[in-house]
Every structure is written in structure tokens, then in C-alpha cells.
């Protein structure tokens, strides 16, 4: 990959000039090249007779390129053409421009273009070292032939934007200080770096002369998105097709459900294709063959590049105590998921040996997610991670403020595999469901239990946002009254989303548990894909321009049985209900499904034949749960159009209710 990156630089011909009097031509970097001067209406070269570091000093300074590294002759950067303007140049280093140095006079001399002079200036070349990939790592800058590091206090988001851009690595996703990628060697850059953010090369960023107090303990690191280019494949013209993104050198498609109208607008703008007309379903332009990038693009709609909307992993500022990071991934929320810890430039997982609820409490506290839920399985399971397993035998008292205060084996020392990755569910973890899949009573999960959402003030826009979060379609019926189950908490009331709310959890409501919900008046809604949504105009004027969250979740229901807790299992995908094939299906899978449906324990995994055979598409197959997963989509599964499952083999089940 390194060689590809080099190739990119080499093939780019860079011309650098200021105010039109001196420029560098033919170098691979902005501050290297053949020196050309402008005189009498045309550009001409400089002869290398008498060419030395004094002259190079003047030119480097004149171009804002720092200090000279080499003065170089014999047309090292290729032969120019036209006039040879200067010969026998003599500078004393205090000139502000090459034109003020001594010479034999404009156009006077006996040189050929094979003697054209060039320079290499200090150039401030950035690189990222010791990250998990080419676009992440400790920031190092080459200056005067020496690689050095950068103090975290001297460096901010705008500076990172320029570095990521220069490295062809997209945009910054996270800044990490305090030697998160290990300590470097050599000098530490301590002067404040003041990029505007739009510079094409780091060398053009101004710096202040006031140094900060720094050591290698403060070495800054960057994780760039890695996404650079976007293209549309297999459409009828260059402005339609399947979205593919380049990640370093590899092209791949974007995870289904990550693309909404806002993201599409950004892609269209990035490709100079005007405004987005419609987003069409999967398979419309054929399936991609490469990777599927699972990153979340949370577009506002005003970004100029899709990668600018890449979900920031952390909002931590680079100057405070974020020494090391932890996160929970795979649940669709920040407060539940597989535990991952950041060390030596990579996210890794934690092994479940001797993991208990006291350890989970510390994680929840550190993430400001409340307390660990002990009525959920401990540890919870959110599927296997990848990459290193960083911690094992973690042992907290439960009162620590951070996981780093707890004892454990040393980093990377373990006897585990990824089947033992720890998951955590905290009390602030929130989730929503409808009692019958894509219709029914609105219920939310909070503080460890499911409860009702009451109907007061709920409108259609709010209901539509719920449908979109559940991948159940873009629109909803007007909410109607329904009576919830009496023993259940009424969790939310007066829930009313505003136009700019992207997820339900941003919408105002009464505090958790407070309500005016007489007779348990619960909101009931029905989701659907509005036909007119497919017309271009309604996309642009739709009042519900809420974005759908990128998630792999799907809605489930049981049909053909008595009540909602037994029957043939169906899954909602690509705007259609489909059956589930029973390859590998067993009682552990049924447990997870019954729990998700709020139907208690599973009684049988091979339900009554009387539930009937399904018709139409089979969406899901090879579900392999352990039984302790929080959601069915945390289990390995294949979600696809399965044409090889006969309708006799569909999953049927009965839950205890
Ligand atoms: C350097 O050269 C410039 C222009 O020829 C002259 O004005 C200046 O006095 C010189 N400085 C020194 C230190 O020789
Ligand atoms: C990267 O880290 C490894 C150990 O993790 C170390 O051996 C190597 O020297 C480091 N490389 C650089 C350029 O810092
Ligand atoms: C960067 O933005 C500033 C104003 O914000 C502008 O003056 C400058 O010309 C821009 N530079 C580039 C290279 O676009
Ligand atoms: C283009 O799409 C069609 C189906 O619409 C598919 O058969 C074909 O393989 C696709 N080609 C590419 C290059 O993706
Ligand atoms: C887009 O708009 C939001 C809010 O209006 C603003 O905070 C954000 O910086 C904008 N993003 C870009 C890339 O202009
Ligand atoms: C944490 O709890 C342990 C024993 O349970 C106690 O010894 C220790 O002092 C406590 N630490 C703090 C900071 O409260
Ligand atoms: C956790 O560690 C930090 C820094 O090492 C220390 O300041 C803090 O007192 C510790 N807290 C507990 C509860 O151990
Ligand atoms: C969450 O549950 C705990 C224990 O069950 C309880 O003490 C706490 O008050 C609850 N919080 C809310 C907001 O209901
Ligand atoms: C599933 O695939 C079959 C065969 O390719 C096709 O006829 C059918 O329309 C597909 N169904 C859906 C819902 O994509």
C-alpha cells in the first residue's frame, strides 16, 4: 500500500508559485522542484553555475517552504524550456526574493537547459506511524531530514483535516493525544500549528512561534476515515448507479440502510451531479463484489464529501484526560454492546474470564451510561469482534471511575478467542419496538425493562421517525389509542419530534416514567412505504426527511398462530415480510426471538404445522444464537433472498407469553 501512495504523489505534477515571480516545477512535493522565475512576460529557468544553499535559502523562504535541504543542479527535476533567465546567482540570504540576488543579468549567460537549477526545501512531510492501518497512527513530520512527533496541545481538528487530505486518507475521524499510538523519537514539534483546514499540504499551514511545554508523552495521533473517492457503478449514466467508496486502495459498496436522501445528496454534490432524485433499493444496480463498508454516514446534507459525515468515534478534545478510550459496539446504541478498548493504535476486545457485574458497572460509569443491568445476562453477548484481544481476567471492585483502575493481565496476554468477547448492557441503553413487528403498540426499553409510550401529543411525523428507526418503512398511520398491559411501566409521554430530530432519542418528552397516561393509553401505529415516496418530488419536499439509522436490525412477527406469541416467524426486510428457513434452527434461537418479541421464554422451536406454510420470499437463514444474545441480529445469520429453502422448512415457534 505504501508504494501505491507514493505512486500517487509521483504522478502528480505540482507547481508552486507566489505572486507570480518564482515557482517550482516538476517536483513530487510542493516544496521541491526546478526553479523558474517570471520576467518580461514569460517564465524561464535558472542556470546551476554558482547555485548554492544561499540561493536555496532565499527561494525556500520566498515560497513559504521553510528551510533549504539541498540546492541541486543538472536539471534534476527535468529540463525546462524557453528562456534561461538567470546565471551566476549570488545571494547573501537576507534578500526577500530571488530577483534581488546578484546575477550576470536577465538572459545573459552561456548555459543549456541540462544545467537547470532546482531546490529541495524542508517540506514538512507528514506520516502516520504505528496505527492499525495506513491512515491511522502517531503523527510524524519530516523536517530537515529528521522525523519528529507533534505535541497534542499544538494540534487541532483543522490541522488533522489537512494531514488526512495530504495523505489521501479522507477526513479525520478521531484525534488522540497522550501518546495513544506509543511514544515517538526525535524532536517534538511544540509550536502551535494553525491550519485553516483548506490547505492542500501541511507545509502551507502557518505556525506560531510560541512553544508549548511538551514531551513524547504528549505525542498526538490521528485516525483518518480512509475513505477518499466515491463512484457510481452500473447505472445508465455517470450520475446514477450503485454507490461505491474507495477505502485506501480498495473499492467497496456502502452498507444497505446507510444511504438515505441526505447521504445521497452529498454523493451527488461530491460527483458534480446536482441534487439527488431518489435512493433505490438494494440489488437495483446489481450487487457489488467487493467489501461492504459498515460505517455510519450521518449526513446533515450540507457536507461536500460523504466522508465528512462519518460518525465521529469520540468527541473528545485533544487537550484533556481522554488518555485511553473504551466503547460499546454492535447494539445500535452507545450504552450497550461488545466492549472494545483502544490500545497501541487498535481497538481490541476483552475476554470474559472472571468477568462479572462489578466490572460491567465500571464500564457503564466510565461511559456515563448509568449502571450495569444485572437482570440481563452478564456478560452479555453481541457477536465476536476482530483484531486483538487486549484484556483478560479483569477484576474491578466496582467503585472505580475507569476500567484502567481495575486489575487485569498485561495488555494482549490471554488464553481466549473471540467467542469469549465481553458485552455490556447499561441502564441508559434505550431501544424501541412495535408489539407486532411493523405495527402495534409502541414500546421502549429503558433501565432494564420494556414499557409503554403514551399517545399524548404524538403526531404522524413522530410515528414516521419510529418506523424509519425500525427499518419498517418511511411513513406511519396517524397514531391511535390502544390499551397497554397493566403491569407495564409507562416510560414515555408527550413525545413529539421536531423536524431536525434525527433519532427518536433527541425528541422532547416528559422525563422517563412521568406520564399523564390515563387507563394506560398507549400509542399504536402502523408503518408503511408510501407509494408516492418513490416519486422524485416527494423525496425533496417530504416533511419527514428524518434519516434512517444505519443498523442491521430487522423487525419480527409471528403469524398464523393464536395471538402474537406463537406462529410462523416472519422478518421484515426490503419493504416486505418474508419467512425464515430452519437450517440450524434450535431452541436457543427461539429464546432470543421470544425475548425480542416480549413473549417470555420459548416453549418450542418447532411449532405447530397448523401455523401453515409461508408464501413468497424467504429472507433469513442459518440463525445461530447462543441464547444469551440481546437481539436476534446479534446472532450469526444470513439475511438474503433464499430461493433454496422449500416452504415446508420454515421456522415456527411457540413462546410462553
Ligand atoms: C545582501 O544583499 C542585498 C542586496 O544586494 C544588500 O542590500 C544587503 O545589504 C546585503 N546584506 C548583507 C548582510 O550583506
Ligand atoms: C511500531 O511499534 C512497534 C512495536 O509495537 C515497534 O517495534 C516499532 O519500532 C514501531 N515503529 C515505529 C516507526 O515507531
Ligand atoms: C482557505 O480559506 C480562506 C478563507 O477562509 C481563503 O482566504 C483561502 O484562500 C483558502 N485557501 C485555499 C487554498 O483554498
Ligand atoms: C449490473 O446490474 C445487473 C442487474 O441489474 C447485474 O446482473 C450485473 O451483474 C451488474 N453489473 C455489475 C458490474 O455490477
Ligand atoms: C452543516 O450544518 C450544521 C448545522 O447547520 C453545521 O454544524 C455543520 O458544521 C455543517 N457542516 C458542514 C460540513 O458545513
Ligand atoms: C473501593 O472499594 C474497596 C473495597 O470494596 C475499598 O477498599 C476502597 O477504598 C474503595 N475505593 C474507593 C475509591 O472508594
Ligand atoms: C483511578 O486512577 C486515576 C489515575 O490513575 C486516579 O486519579 C484515581 O484516583 C483512581 N480512582 C480509583 C477509584 O481508583
Ligand atoms: C432504574 O432501576 C433502578 C433499580 O431497578 C431504580 O433504582 C432506579 O430508580 C430506576 N431509574 C429510573 C429512572 O426509573
Ligand atoms: C428472489 O429471487 C427470485 C429468483 O431470483 C426472484 O424471482 C424474486 O423476485 C426475488 N424476490 C425478492 C423479493 O427479491
UniProtKB/TrEMBL annotation:
A Pfam entry, by short name: SRCR
Keywords, sorted A to Z: Disulfide bond, Glycoprotein, Receptor, Repeat, Signal
The SRCR domain, residue ranges: 22-122, 126-225, 230-308, 326-427, 432-528, 556-656
Cystine crosslinks: 47-111, 60-121, 91-101, 195-205, 396-406, 497-507, 581-645, 594-655, 625-635
PROSITE patterns: SRCR_1 (PS00420), SRCR_2 (PS50287)
Annotated signal sequence range: 1-19
Gene Ontology cellular component annotations, sorted alphabetically: membrane
Name the UniProt record assigns to this protein: Scavenger receptor cysteine-rich type 1 protein M130-like
Amino acid at each position: 500500500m505504501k508504494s501505491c501512495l507514493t505512486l500517487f504523489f509521483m504522478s502528480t505534477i505540482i507547481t508552486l508559485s507566489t505572486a507570480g515571480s518564482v515557482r517550482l516545477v516538476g517536483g513530487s512535493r510542493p516544496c521541491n522542484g526546478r526553479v523558474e522565475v517570471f520576467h518580461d512576460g514569460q517564465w524561464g529557468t535558472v542556470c546551476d553555475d554558482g547555485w548554492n544553499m544561499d540561493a536555496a535559502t532565499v527561494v525556500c523562504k520566498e515560497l513559504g517552504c521553510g528551510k533549504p535541504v539541498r540546492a541541486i543542479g543538472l536539471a534534476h527535476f527535468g529540463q525546462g524550456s524557453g528562456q534561461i533567465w538567470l546565471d551566476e546567482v549570488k545571494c547573501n540570504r537576507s534578500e526577500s526574493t530571488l530577483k534581488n540576488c546578484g546575477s550576470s543579468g536577465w538572459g545573459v549567460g552561456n548555459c543549456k537547459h541540462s544545467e537547470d537549477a532546482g531546490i529541495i526545501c524542508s517540506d514538512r512531510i507528514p506520516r502516520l506511524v504505528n496505527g492499525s492501518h495506513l491512515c491511522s497512527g502517531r503523527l510524524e513530520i519530516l523536517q530537515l531530514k529528521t522525523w519528529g512527533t507533534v505535541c497534542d496541545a499544538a494540534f487541532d481538528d483543522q490541522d488533522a483535516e489537512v494531514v488526512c487530505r495530504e495523505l489521501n486518507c479522507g477526513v479525520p475521524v478521531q484525534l488522540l493525544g497522550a501518546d495513544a499510538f506509543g511514544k515517538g523519537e526525535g524532536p517534538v514539534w511544540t509550536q502551535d500549528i494553525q491550519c485553516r483546514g483548506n490547505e492542500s499540504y501541511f507545509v502551507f499551514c502557518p505556525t506560531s512561534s510560541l512553544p508549548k511545554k511538551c514531551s513524547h508523552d504528549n505525542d498526538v495521533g490521528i485516525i483518518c476515515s480512509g475513505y477518499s473517492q466515491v463512484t457510481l457503478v452500473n447505472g445508465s449514466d455517470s450520475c446514477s448507479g450503485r454507490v461505491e467508496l474507495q477505502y485506501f486502495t480498495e473499492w467497496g459498496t456502502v452498507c444497505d440502510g446507510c444511504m438515505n436522501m441526505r447521504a445521497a445528496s452529498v454523493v451527488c454534490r461530491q460527483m458534480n451531479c446536482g441534487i439527488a432524485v431518489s435512493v433505490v433499493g438494494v440489488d437495483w444496480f446489481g450487487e457489488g463484489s467487493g467489501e461492504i463498508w459498515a460505517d455510519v454516514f450521518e449526513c446533515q446534507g450540507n457536507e461536500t464529501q460523504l466522508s465528512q459525515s462519518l460518525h465521529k468515534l469520540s468527541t473528545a478534545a485533544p487537550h484533556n484526560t481522554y488518555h485511553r478510550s473504551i466503547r460499546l459496539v454492535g447494539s445500535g446504541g452507545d450504552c450497550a454492546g461488545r466492549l472494545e478498548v483502544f490500545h497501541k493504535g487498535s481497538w481490541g476486545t476483552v475476554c470474559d474470564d472472571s468477568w462479572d457485574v462489578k466490572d460491567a458497572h465500571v464500564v457503564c460509569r466510565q461511559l456515563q451510561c448509568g449502571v450495569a443491568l444485572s437482570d440481563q445476562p452478564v456478560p452479555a453477548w453481541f457477536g465476536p469482534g476482530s483484531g486483538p484481544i487486549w484484556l483478560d481476567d479483569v477484576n474491578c471492585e466496582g467503585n472505580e471511575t475507569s476500567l484502567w483502575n481495575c486489575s487485569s493481565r498485561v495488555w494482549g496476554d490471554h488464553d481466549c478467542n473471540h467467542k469469549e468477547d465481553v458485552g455490556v448492557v447499561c441502564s441508559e441503553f434505550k431501544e424501541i419496538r412495535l408489539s407486532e413487528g411493523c405495527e402495534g403498540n409502541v414500546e421502549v426499553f429503558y433501565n432494564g425493562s420494556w414499557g409503554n409510550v403514551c399517545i399524548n401529543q404524538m403526531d404522524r411525523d413522530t410515528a414516521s421517525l419510529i418506523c424509519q428507526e425500525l427499518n419498517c418503512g418511511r411513513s406511519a398511520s396517524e397514531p391511535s389509542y390502544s390499551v397497554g398491559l397493566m403491569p407495564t411501566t409507562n416510560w414515555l409521554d408527550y413525545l413529539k419530534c421536531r423536524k431536525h430530530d434525527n433519532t427518536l432519542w433527541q425528541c422532547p418528552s416528559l422525563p422517563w416514567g412521568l406520564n399523564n397516561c390515563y387507563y394506560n393509553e398507549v400509542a399504536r401505529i402502523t408503518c408503511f412505504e408510501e407509494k408516492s415516496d418513490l416519486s422524485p418530488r416527494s423525496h425533496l419536499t417530504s416533511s419527514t426527511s428524518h434519516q434512517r439509522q444505519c443498523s442491521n436490525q430487522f423487525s419480527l412477527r409471528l403469524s398464523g398462530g393464536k395471538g402474537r406469541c406463537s406462529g410462523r416467524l416472519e422478518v421484515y426486510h426490503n419493504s416486505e415480510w418474508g419467512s425464515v428457513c430452519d437450517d440450524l434452527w434450535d431452541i436457543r434461537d427461539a429464546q432470543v426471538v421470544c425475548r425480542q418479541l416480549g413473549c417470555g421464554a420459548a416453549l418450542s422451536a418447532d411449532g405447530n404445522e397448523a401455523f401453515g406454510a409461508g408464501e413468497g420470499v424467504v429472507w433469513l437463514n442459518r440463525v445461530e444464537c447462543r441464547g444469551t444474545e440481546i437481539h436476534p441480529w446479534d446472532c450469526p445469520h444470513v439475511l438474503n433472498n433464499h430461493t433454496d429453502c422449500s416452504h415446508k422448512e420454515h421456522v415456527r415457534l411457540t413462546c410462553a407469553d
